[in-house]
Amino acid sequence: FIVHMDHSDMPEAFIDNHLDWYGSSLRSVSESANMIYAYTSVVHGYSARMTAAEANLLEKQPGVLLVQEDMVYDVHTTRSPEFLGLLGNEGSTAVSGSPIGDVVVGVLDTGVWPESKSYDDAGLGPIPASWKGGCELSRSFNSSSCNRKLIGARFFSQGYESAFGPIDETVESKSPRDDKGHGTHTSSTAAGSPVVGASLFGFAAGTARGMATHARVAVYKVCWLGGCLTSDILAAIEKAIADGVHVLSMSLGGSVFDYYLDTIAIGAFAAASRGILVSCSAGNAGPTPGSLSNVAPWITTTGAGTLDRKFPSYVTLGNGDKLTGVSLFSGSPLPKSLIPIVYAGDASNSSYGYLCTKGSLIPEKVKGKIVLCERGINARTQKGSVVRLAGGAGMVLANTASYGEELVADAHFLPSAAVGLTAGDAIKKYILSEKNPIATITSGGTQLGIQPSPVVAAFSSRGPNTITPGVLKPDFIAPGVNILAGWTGKAGPTGLPEDTRHVSFNIVSGTSMSCPHVSGLAAMIKGAHPEWSPAAIKSALMTTAYKKYKTGEIIKDLATGRAATSLDYGAGHVDPVLALDPGLVYDLSINDYVDFLCAIGYSASTMKIVTKQNYTCKPGRKYKVSDLNYPSFSVPLPTASGPKGGSNAPIVLTYRRTVTNVGTPGTYKVSVTQDTKDVKVVVQPQVLNFVSLNEKQSYTVTFTASSLPSGTTNFGNLEWTDGKHVVNSPIVFSWT
């Protein structure tokens, strides 16, 4: 359990040593329980193992705000810099003279493989004098593992071992070393050094590099084979703050909770209060509406989009049809002649045989054949392993309706093609309609220039924000599909136990991959503008993001094939080159976030859990979520329809925003576009004239809305421009 303590209730006898107070409180309910971690900055309190009855008793003791059960979180699991327009632009030095080499990106994940060339420190200067971190040594991690690129490496296992028992060091490394690959992939994506000649089995060949190649990397291993414990995550965030990171990257998450119960939100608040930008993944639960995690407004939340690159694999059927999928298989190809193909559901005695789960296929029915498996339940690559073990010669992996036309390439064990819903249905129809269906699979290598791109990945979690509908999430999308980056030497590219292949780089998909893209871009912007706050950096990335292709069409959604919306991509797809010079930013301080907590009705005690402050919302002041100076507008509207519907009278809501000039003097004019006539939008004033750097000016937006049926959602856009800069803010209207 994680125990949140109220320091204002600490007895005088413990004023000089709050740790003794923590120990005394624990002993008041249990003589045998031991403290796991004592926290000082991210949380006022500690974590300890105890019974549920002891936890309930402890929560009733004086000075205890909350006793929260420790939880398991999961990770959200070349071409990117060029696709983002960074080649030739990343080597920016600061406006104020502080080079990007002084910026440190902290990554909470599965650890690091320090031998990866992505951590080569050639060309980097001395470690920044402000850095207070270090590298924790062990049998599998020695002093030479760190250098001027990888300047910090720590591990946190006490919470995990308290829950699951001692770590078996014959299976995984009790050190910062990465046994899974995920942490090496994310940290090298954020700030890896350039590596010429990188590829996965020849796919995506080129120079692999992080977003901020001159930034430093510090890793905090919090995720183990059984998951990531919230008590370890809090301890790692606390240490990262003390070490002196500037950006904190976390490609992990769990269920969505109110902020005072959300470990990552609490830790992120502590980091943000010290000027650290916290970058998190939105989650991989899309395309279900409201599936986001990490939605606190002080967190930068990133969804996933595609690159303009794919790895085609072709399925040729006996009727002459040729359908396109994707694959990263690189072994011996199938014979040129067509061979039998079978539907997995017809080659199994299991009701789930069509999914190619372990032991579900009958070897006599699949031997020497291509097997059509359907996506879902078990890992995509595991399905190929099941087919291979049963004697199959190849696999077609077909999307179901949940995945639509999304194509995710994997390093399969046998010739394969992952195909979209339409192609999968066509292949299945052919198999079931022919007496002796035949097919073959051939690889198409690597193709660039794929259009349209980007498109929103089907797996990318979607809005609305279920905790605070008045704050739009995700904030934006970034590349997260088929990303090439560094990998561990301990696991094969599939991560499965039976995969004995060793690779230096791997191609992986997920919002876990889009998050470190943004973490690296934030580091790049921090290097160029060291005086900017985390909120200003996020604003720059949001207001310069794009929602349309060069053709004028809106970014598409892979799940539907239709135009995506701001509930899918937030402000749009990041454009880091424009973000370096956004013109105006929407800034926020920690006090603004405290006011936000007042607006959502937090009591003094729940406020204390998040902020660690004795703060009481002023009784005479009217706090409103709509006054949070966020770079987007989410406008929840009441409906007159339904049994709990209200009046049909128009609803009038006023939002206030303040923008700060971070560019040259100029006159900005506003324009609003929207896809509904049921809301009237008035901006006052309509012109903002800036004469100096860092000058602030405010404006209001008044929305006058008619009642529409519950569940109706419409979209718009508010734009300020001085002719050079375009400062965009998405608008979402939702009736409930």
UniProtKB/TrEMBL annotation:
The keyword Plastid does not apply. Residues 627-732 form the Subtilisin-like protease fibronectin type-III domain. Belongs to the peptidase S8 family. This is Subtilisin-like protease. The keyword Glycoprotein applies. InterPro entries: PA_dom_sf, PA_domain, Peptidase_S8/S53_dom, Peptidase_S8/S53_dom_sf, Peptidase_S8_Ser-AS, Peptidase_S8_subtilisin-rel, Peptidases_S8_3, S8pro/Inhibitor_I9. Gene3D superfamilies: 2.60.40.2310, 3.50.30.30, Peptidase S8 propeptide/proteinase inhibitor I9, Peptidase S8/S53 domain. Residues 355-427 form the PA domain. GO terms for biological process: proteolysis. Residues 169-191 are annotated as: Disordered. It comes from Genlisea aurea. Residues 1-76 form the Inhibitor I9 domain. Residues 102-572 form the Peptidase S8/S53 domain. Keywords: Glycoprotein, Hydrolase, Protease, Serine protease, Signal. One of its GO terms (molecular function) is serine-type endopeptidase activity. The active site is at D109 (charge relay system), H182 (charge relay system), S512 (charge relay system).
